[in-house]
Write a structure and sequence with these properties.
about 375 residues; alpha+beta; four-stranded antiparallel β-sheet; elongated; binds cobalamin; binds iron/sulfur cluster
């Protein structure tokens, strides 16, 4: 058996659905990254700016590297909403893929080395100085789309990417034929509630709910809050409408349901007495730990504002008065004004909270809410 087929075989045995190689060189879409960063479309994701040179010229970071073995792992599954109707991006419902794919890549690298196919390797996934989608498209394991996601005929947009940087020149052909294009479809551009897809394949992260709920650390801009709807963490709208994903297999068992997601309650997330340490313990092994307790409580407040309920009203009033984070207090003020403005108690509570607020930015945010929501 050729080295090419053996690599492919081992990768599949270890659970990778898609494999293909591309030389370790400047990604084809590097000019797009440069333009995107120059426009500031990355928002506060400073690491993307800091890593710019390494991303554009990956060979400089890995002098021994010759080949990128790009892998894809399907994660298609049904949508998940909590008992209170909050939605969580499907990729984050189960075990954290960073751990799972990272460990599988280590196993793959070791297996390839054992068979003498490579000597050294590095496994990487997600937040690394590599344009994974661009390299994976070059490796032939998916095609680029108007939603910016990489698509595959079997999984649609529902697959993770990862890679091994190999010290040998190697060509592995994709195991499944990859054909397709968006054609005249514009469903993702049409569905995006914040017009974050500013042109085919171009996304302004500052407008994207995924960025706002996962990566952004401060208050979420007022003009985007109502558009958040019931998205607590991430956003799948542009993936859900994509016809290429509609027949993807249900792979829910692969990553399972994280216990913290199974029992998740917005009201509990907003509880001012929940510490970061308790939050981190509950969400250990979940991608949802990333925004920390403060970020997820902020998101929970917005969802409760967009989906009013009696338990939500009580939780928001508590949070307004007693949350240790000014970002969460301010989000709760918005949620109360937006979803519960007709309630007799709310206007007085908001007045009092604004007068007593010690954080100038939160106070200004409350004033902004007053002007916008009255
Ligand atoms: C920063 C980041 C984000 C940011 C910015 C996303 C973005 N579109 O740039 C935010 C936080 C918003 C985000 C959101 C999401 N992300 Co993200 N993210 C990344 C990360 C770390 C870097 C991406 C990057 O460099 N962006 C800069 C732009 C310029 O690069 P790009 O998007 O890769 O570029 C592609 C498009 O711009 C397209 N393109 C450019 N011009 C044109 C023109 C035309 C005509 C066309 C058709 C296409 C096209 O081509 C490029 C690919 O070859 C990657 C991991 C990595 N290291 O690559 C994961 C990654 C892209 N994310 C991923 C996922 C799953 C998501 C979400 C689906 C999560 C969710 N459900 O909430 C959303 C999807 C939002 C979207 N529609 O893109 C997966 C994508 C898997 C896949 N099959 O595509 C990745 C690869 C992580 C992984 N290892 O699996 N993400
Ligand atoms: S993830 Fe949501 S907000 Fe972001 S581009 Fe897609 S539909 Fe728009
Ligand atoms: S929804 Fe349509 S336009 Fe958007 S990525 Fe899928 S096929 Fe392409």
């Amino acid at each position: 058996m050729s080295a090419d087929s053996r690599v492919s075989e081992i990768a599949h045995e270890l659970g990778f659905d898609l494999v293909g190689t591309t030389p370790l060189q400047t990604p084809a879409r590097a000019p797009e990254l440069e333009r995107w960063l120059a426009e500031g479309a990355h928002g506060s994701m400073d690491y993307l700016e800091r890593h710019r040179e390494r991303t554009v010229n990956p060979a400089a970071s890995y002098p021994e590297g010759r080949t990128l073995l790009m892998v894809g792992v399907g994660h298609s599954r049904l949508a998940h909403a909590t008992a209170e109707g909050a939605r969580i991006a499907r990729y984050a419902i189960g075990r954290d893929y960073h751990n799972a794919v990272g460990k599988a890549l280590q196993r793959l690298g070791k297996a390839l080395a054992r068979e003498g196919l490579i000597q050294r390797f590095r496994g990487r996934v997600d937040a690394v100085p590599l344009m994974e989608r661009s390299h994976a498209a070059s490796a032939g394991i998916g095609f680029e789309s108007k939603a910016a996601n990489l698509l595959h005929p079997r999984f649609g947009p529902w697959f993770f990417l990862g890679e091994l940087i190999l010290d040998v020149e190697l060509e592995v052909s994709p195991n499944e034929p990859v054909y397709g294009s968006c054609g005249s479809c514009t469903a993702c551009l049409d569905v995006c509630p914040t017009d974050a897809l500013t042109a085919p394949g171009r996304l302004d992260a500052r407008l994207c709910l995924s960025y706002q709920t996962i990566e952004h650390r401060g208050p979420i801009p007022h003009e985007l809050r109502a558009s958040h709807g019931d998205w607590l963490f991430g956003c799948d709208l542009c993936s859900e409408v994509c016809p290429w994903g509609h027949k993807a297999p249900d792979l829910a068992d692969r990553f399972g349901l994280h216990p913290a997601v199974a029992t998740l309650s917005l009201v509990q997330l907003l509880d001012p007495s929940q510490t970061q340490a308790a939050f981190a313990a509950a969400f250990r092994g979940s991608a949802m730990a990333r925004p920390k307790r403060e970020g997820l409580a902020r998101n929970a407040a917005l969802v409760l504002g967009n989906r009013p309920s009696e338990s939500g009203r009580i939780a928001l009033l508590h949070s307004l008065q007693g949350d240790p984070s000014p970002i969460v207090r301010e989000a709760s003020a918005w949620a109360l004004a937006h979803g519960y403005g007709g309630d007799a108690e709310v206007p007085a509570a908001l007045d009092r909270a604004q007068r007593q607020e010690t954080d100038p930015k939160a106070r200004a945010g409350m004033q902004r809410t007053r002007e916008r929501e009255s």
